[in-house]
Design a protein that fits this description.
alpha+beta; five-stranded antiparallel β-sheet; 5 strands
């Protein structure tokens, strides 16, 4: 999954890139390459949705071109978290449903009619699964949008810092 953005820029590219490198390395990014006009960084990966949205980018390339500041990112961290959010709750629900079927079958199965314990177990499992079929993709979209907004904010801050430096005497 790729993301790219650029903004008009007429300032000090070194100052703008320094801001981004400082902010990203504080989040655990590794600086792979740095020139006066560009920086390449590798992200630490996204482990939960409460982390900074910037860690959703697994690879970042920041480039200062004449009149433009651009950012290109591979959203590998966000993609991994999105896949987890879509699959894990449904898989967990299915596993718990099977466990409950086995436990109820062994404990109360011989004493009660099949429909009296099977219907609630299957019903609750299917209902919970249906909820996660809707919630999983919705939460995955939120993670993607949050990561993209974080990268847009970083780029806008870089422009502001670089142009402020160029405007000051």
């Amino acid at each position: 999954m790729e993301y790219a953005a650029s903004l008009p820029f007429h300032g000090n590219p070194d100052k703008a890139l320094d801001l981004a490198v400082a902010a990203l390395t504080a989040l655990g990014f590794r600086l792979n390459a740095r020139t006066p006009e560009s920086a390449q960084l590798s992200g630490p990966g996204m482990n939960n949705s409460r982390q900074s949205p910037l860690v959703g980018a697994s690879q970042l390339e920041l480039r200062a071109l004449p009149g433009t500041l651009s950012l290109a990112a591979d959203l590998g961290g966000a993609q991994r978290m999105m896949r987890f959010i879509r699959i894990f709750p449904i898989a967990l629900n299915a596993a718990l449903g099977i466990i409950f079927l086995v436990v109820f079958g062994l404990l109360v199965g011989p004493r009660l009619p099949l429909a009296s314990w099977l219907t609630p177990v299957v019903g609750v499992t299917l209902l919970n699964g249906a909820v996660w079929v809707v919630l999983g993709p919705w939460m995955a979209r939120l993670i993607h949008q949050r990561t993209c907004r974080g990268l847009e904010t970083l780029l806008a801050s870089m422009v502001a810092a670089g142009e402020a430096e160029a405007a000051s005497p």
